[in-house]
Design goal:
86% helix, mainly alpha, single chain
């Protein structure tokens, strides 16, 4: 994925996170059913994906926030607080996805810097060869 696409993806993900926060209270006070459990599972999966993308190195604050929110969701599940469970699960997933996106972005940025450095060395070698002729 190109640098510009990643940047657009990060912006979209950020605004999605804001949207989830703004609308998190629009959850009915139902019991915690399979659909809501799936949201929790999705959040755990997003956290695992973020860990695999080295988010601990590149986006530790969002990763820690996702972990904390998963713990909050788990506590809400035990107390049968469906609204808090869903809100925390959704926010955990959003933070985990943001952490993953940031980690991938930083990794691409580092790769771009390394490629640019190699390009500069190659240019310097070419210039050196031209001067020696």
């Amino acid at each position: 994925m190109s640098f510009a696409r990643r940047l657009v993806f990060l912006g979209t993900l950020f605004f999605s996170l804001v949207f989830v926060v703004a609308h998190a209270g629009v959850v009915w006070a139902d019991s915690i059913g399979p659909a809501r459990e799936q949201e929790f599972s999705d959040a755990r999966g997003a956290l695992e994906a973020a860990l695999n993308a080295q988010a601990e190195v590149f986006a530790p604050s969002h990763l820690n926030q996702a972990r904390d929110l998963l713990q909050t969701a788990d506590k809400a599940r035990r107390s049968q607080d469906a609204e808090r469970f869903v809100r925390a699960s959704r926010m955990a997933r959003a933070h985990a996805e943001l952490a993953k996106a940031l980690a991938e972005f930083k990794a691409d940025e580092d790769q771009l810097a390394a490629t640019n450095e190699a390009l500069q060395k190659a240019k310097a070698e070419i210039e050196g060869l031209k001067k020696s002729q």
